[in-house]
Amino acid sequence: MSYCILSYSHKNTDISLRERLALDPKNPASGVFLKEIVENKFIEEALILSTCNRIEFILNASNPQKAQEYILSKLSDYSRIGADKLQEHADFYEDIAAIHHLFSVASSLDSLVIGETQISGQLKNAFKFSYDLGCCGLELSRAIHFAFRCAASVRNSTNISKNAVSVASVAVSKAKEILGTLKDREALVIGAGEMSTLCAKHLLNAGAKVILTNRDIDKANTLSKELKQDVENASLHVDSFKNIAKLINQIPLIFSATGAPHSIITKDMLEASSMERFWFDLAVPRDIEEIQDPKIKIFAVDDLQDIVKKNLAIREEQARIAYGIVGRFTQEFFDWLQSLNVDPIIKNIRQLAKDSALKELQRGISKGFLPKEYEKNIEKTLHNAFNAFLHQFTISLKNVANTPKGDSIVESVRFLFGGDDPKMAEKYKCEHIEEKSNKHC
C-alpha cells in the first residue's frame, strides 16, 4: 500500500478552476463522491481536504497510478472539466513526498498565508468527515495524527504562527490600506462560518461598524452575541438575508464568505450609484458574480498576493526552520511505521524465553540439580513449555496489530520486552475517535 495525494492549490490552479473542484462537506454529494472513491479496487482509504485555497485528495492506495487515473476521471465527471486539463494542473505525490506534503500543509507552510491557523481545524474536520463515513481507516489515521504532531511542533518551535494572519485578516488589512482607516466605516459581512467570523472580528477590532447577515438568522444572532462578548464596545447588528440586495447597494465595504454552491450577489441586484465599492469575496466557489463596473472593485482570494508576499518575506527564516522540522517528522513517521511490524517483536520474545530457559538449565546442571544426560530432553520440554505459553500471546498480538488500538499495544510490548522508548504509545491518539468512543486511533 502507498500513501498518495492529488493536489490542487493556489500554487498550481487559479480560483476559477478551484471553485469548480470544491467539495463542501455539508453537501451530501461530497459524501457520495468520497464513498465512490474508496469503492475503487485500487483505493483503500481516502479523505478530501477542500478549502478556499486547495483541494487535496489524500489516499491510501494499492496502485497509485490507477488511483490517480480514477480520481481524475471522477473529478472530470463532477466538474465538467476534461481529465487532461485536470492532470495538467495537478500535483501528484507518492509515499515520502506525499507525507512531506501532508505535513507541510498541516503546518501551514503550503498555505496562501504562511502561518495561518485555520488549516489545522480544516484538516481535522476533513478527517472527521471521512472517518464517520467509514472512508478513513488505520493507515490514513496514522498519517493524519502524525501530521497534527508535526504541526504542533512547528508552532511550538518557531514564531511562524505568532501574530498569526489569515486570508480574512489579509482582506481586512487590504481594505484598511485602500481606505486609510476602518474606524466608524460601515462594513457588511455575509456568512456566519469561520472566515466570516474572523472578518467580523478583525473589522470590529479596527473600529468598523459591522452589519452581519446570513441565511440562517439564528446563526447570525448567535455569532453576534459571541463577537460582542469578545470585542469590547463592538458596533455590530444583524440584518435579514432577505435585505441583501438593499444592503449591497447601501454599504460600500463588503466581505462575503458563505458556503453557497453558486453566486449570491449577481449583476441584476445592482443599482446605479456613484459610490465607490470594495467587495472582498473570500468564498470558493465565489459568492460574487463577475461584475464589470468601474465603481466596484472585487477582490477574490487570489487577489491578495501582494500582502501575502510581504507576509512570506517576514516569515521566510521561520519557514526554513519549520521545513526542517517537517523533514525530520517525515523520516520519523516512516521509521515508526517500519517499527510496527510485530514479527521481529515475537521473534525477540521467543529468543528471550529460549535464552532464559537454557541459562537456567545450564545453571541447574552445573549445580547438580539436574543430570547432564537429561539435558536434551529437558531442553525440548522447556522449549515446548514456552511455545505453549506464548501461543495465545502470539495470536492475540498479530490479531490486534492492524486494528486502531494496535499501535499503542505493539509499542508497549516492545517497550516491556525490548526496553525501547515507546515514542507514540502515549502521544499518538485520535482526538476525534476518543471523543466518540474513548479509543486510541
Structure description:
- With 441 residues, the chain is of the alpha/beta class.
- It folds into three domains: 156 residues, Beta Polymerase, domain 2; 145 residues, Rossmann fold, CATH 3.40.50; 80 residues, no CATH class.
- The strands form two sheets. A six-stranded parallel beta sheet has the order 7-6-5-8-9-10.
- Helix 10 links the parallel strand 6 and strand 7.
- Helix 6 runs antiparallel to helix 7, helix 7 packs across helix 12 and helix 13 runs parallel beside helix 15.
- The radius of gyration is 28 Å and the shape is elongated.
- The relative contact order is 0.10.
- The C terminus is likely disordered.
**How many angstroms does the end-to-end distance come to?**
19 Å
H/E order of the elements?
Answer: EHHEEHHEHHHHEHEHEHEEEHHHHH
> Judging by the overall fold, what is the CATH architecture of the largest domain?
2-Layer Sandwich
| Level-1 CATH class name of the largest domain | Alpha Beta
What is the name of the CATH superfamily of the largest domain? Glutamyl-tRNA reductase, N-terminal domain
CATH topology value of the largest domain = Beta Polymerase, domain 2
The largest β sheet comes out as: 6 strands, parallel
